[in-house]
Amino acid sequence: MSSVRRLMATLSSSSSSLWKNGLSLRATQSTSIVRSTALLGYRRTFRRSFVVASSSFDNDNREFVIVGGGNAAGYAARTFVEHGMADGRLCIVSKEAYAPYERPALTKAYLFPLDKKPARLPGFHTCVGSGGERQTPEWYQEKGIETIYNEPVTSIDIEKHTLTTNSGKLLKYGSLIVATGCTASRFPEKIGGNLPGVHYIRDVADADALISSLEKAKKVVIVGGGYIGMEVAAAAVAWKLDTTIVFPENHLLQRLFTPSLAQRYEELYKENGVKFLKGAMIKNLEAGADGSVAAIKLEDGSTIEADTVIIGIGAKPAVGPFESVGLNTTVGGIQVDGQFRTNIPGIFAVGDVAAFPLKLYDRIARVEHVDHARRSAQHCVKALLSAQTHNYDYLPYFYSRVFEYEGSSRKVWWQFFGDNVGEAIEVGNFDPKIATFWIESGKLKGVLLESGSPEEFQLLPELARSQPIVDKDKLENASSVEEALDIARSSLQVKASV
Ligand SMILES: Cc1cc2nc3c(=O)[nH]c(=O)nc-3n(C[C@H](O)[C@H](O)[C@H](O)COP(=O)(O)OP(=O)(O)OC[C@H]3O[C@@H](n4cnc5c(N)ncnc54)[C@H](O)[C@@H]3O)c2cc1C
């Protein structure tokens, strides 16, 4: 790119960022020349004020700051690079010691037994999870992105545009993206939630601590029958450990699975050696003579022995110091609009922590899944840096993969798209495929598929977004998953031709 074109590109993207993040107040000036001149003037003042005060701040790159170094941060960084706006302008400050990585790996390949080629960093830095370039710490250096690791941000001053970290560093920002994700929900200390041998899993340090325990464990108990519980239980039996999963609900993944679908997965888990205690309420965790966890006491008075306990009971949005930028009280998190702007100009929130308008279903939602983390980060940065003005229009997508290690008798991989509302119709016998279709008012609202082919998986988002009217009787009578998917596909065509 010639230097003139580069300057033009920079001007045009800077201008939109300045307009959009609320730093420019000259919105009434409409011609591009006036706008660029005004922005150049503004930009000089803006830069100068930073330069004058440079010695008082601990970050060099102050135009854009991302707080949080997780999935969303990694994908946001990539989008800054794609717009030519990272070099010398972007700073990432993170509580973790590592460059952003694909967090879902922590309860999948990261927990493979040590002789089964477990995943380790730098192998799964973002953005490998979506087929992109692996962004190692060196990648950030090469792209001119300043990274500050091991520094939780503890407070924000929205008047001065500054952040303070745990160690007392003072950081300046022009525009701020909050990408702090979630923290794992914990059992209170008074019921044994902090005993040695009790694990929560959110980051690499947690996963490493769990692996050290698994190396010497004999009896593992997993509390929680959601994603984390299911993935950790599948991993623990691969280590050939006595593994029990305990949860208060009647079946696995109650938020999404129907009872009959859960039954299929539970049978598979049992075949792999996992024991189940369903409908069980935990009273407390008890320590043994050495002070480490030794047992779990249930409300019904019974006790299960355990030397390693993993708690997977959900997560809470990490709003911490940012509560002041617009906490949403209905779904938690930081409230944003369809372009991830909070109610304070220049401050954005993305990923797990953001409570955003889920346009398709006309409700405010927080989504704790990696696909949303990636897409929200990309959408937010594009809106900030370019002429993009359309609102985020997310289609919920969840997936899980378990029993993937070498030597496993069966690898499991399901995907779900849409909304699990209305009546559920199940097709297939899990040998190997099964599909569940959710139908409300005659419309196909959500679909889950286990062990589909790539082409079949590709059809799911199309179905869930279009919500075609489907022939429920035909679907119920389908003799195979393939036939059911064909029926659903043909209802798409009917919709298109109407
Ligand atoms: C073990 C595990 C397995 C998962 N598996 C799946 C899966 O199979 N499929 C799926 O769709 N999703 C999965 N998820 C969810 C998915 O990983 C998250 O939705 C995604 O990581 C969210 O991205 P994020 O950037 O918003 O938050 P995160 O990736 O959690 O990143 C947040 C970052 O902010 C940092 N941070 C927090 N507070 C501060 C602060 N005050 N100052 C500085 N830094 C801070 C954190 O340390 C972290 O680095 C899984 C999550 C976990 C924990």
UniProtKB/TrEMBL annotation:
SUPFAM superfamilies: FAD/NAD(P)-binding domain
Domain FAD/NAD(P)-binding: 64-376
Domain Monodehydroascorbate reductase 3-like C-terminal as annotated: residue spans: 395-476
A Pfam family hit: Pyr_redox_2
Record bears the keyword Protein transport: no
Stored PANTHER family: APOPTOSIS-INDUCING FACTOR 1, MONODEHYDROASCORBATE REDUCTASE, CHLOROPLASTIC_MITOCHONDRIAL
Membership in a protein family: Belongs to the FAD-dependent oxidoreductase family.
Protein name stated in the entry: monodehydroascorbate reductase (NADH)
